[in-house]
Design a protein that fits this description.
globular, single chain, 2 domains, two-stranded antiparallel ribbon, mainly alpha
Length: about 210
């Protein structure tokens, strides 16, 4: 699968559709768990639809979604080697229909913002699109991994920092996604949000107030 991931990265960076890779991924889908295999097949169907309409850019977007999904599978499987981590190390979230629909809509909006932006170079666009695809995949699971969402927030902030700019519509939507996921996580419902954590006094400052 690593070779497939690298080839997808290459063609996406070149803004070139490649149907051969899409069908290779479809062949892989039979070895994935049912929900992941279904996600792959849905992406393939969307790719075929847009390509048949002559919409190469939309087809490339589906290739980006596929790449993010495959990278997420790789990143999760390799360190765990088939073992489930203790819950305290892998906080999860469960979304109701309303929250799920909202997160999916926010992901669609963020993808459009990134694709329309001329601020980012192709590697950074791909990185952000991959994060969004990873979040979408987690949303479709019965229990999503909160750390995947938090990583998306981190990557958006880091990427915008590198380019010395801020795209408020993008950051606003990513923060809303994180807030929705976090509010539906039992493991995190008693932990201060990142914004609150930053406001906590440093240890030496806390001691000086005693």
């Amino acid at each position: 699968m690593e070779e497939l991931i690298k080839e997808l990265e290459f063609y996406i960076d070149e803004n070139t559709v490649n149907t051969r890779l899409i069908y290779r991924a479809k062949a892989y889908s039979c070895s994935f768990e049912e929900t992941v295999g279904r996600d792959v097949n849905q992406i393939v169907e969307q790719y075929e639809h847009w390509l048949s309409q002559g919409q190469d850019r939309a087809a490339l977007e589906q290739m980006g979604r596929l790449l993010g999904l495959l990278e997420g599978i790789r990143d999760l499987k390799e360190p765990l080697k088939g073992k489930s981590p203790p819950p305290e190390f892998a906080p999860q979230f469960e979304l109701g229909t309303k929250d799920k629909d909202r997160v999916v809509e926010l992901c669609i909006q963020m993808r459009k913002i990134i694709l329309a932006s001329d601020i980012f170079d192709q590697p950074h666009k791909r990185r952000l699109l991959n994060r969004i695809a990873g979040i979408e995949h987690q949303v479709e699971q019965p229990k999503g991994l909160l750390d995947i969402v938090r990583a998306g927030v981190s990557d958006v902030g880091e990427t915008l920092g590198k380019f010395g700019t801020d795209i408020e519509p993008l950051t606003k939507r990513m923060k809303e996604v994180a807030q929705i996921a976090r509010s539906n996580s039992k493991e995190y419902d008693q932990i201060p949000a990142p914004e609150e954590v930053k406001q906590l006094p440093k240890p030496n400052e806390a001691e000086s107030t005693d």
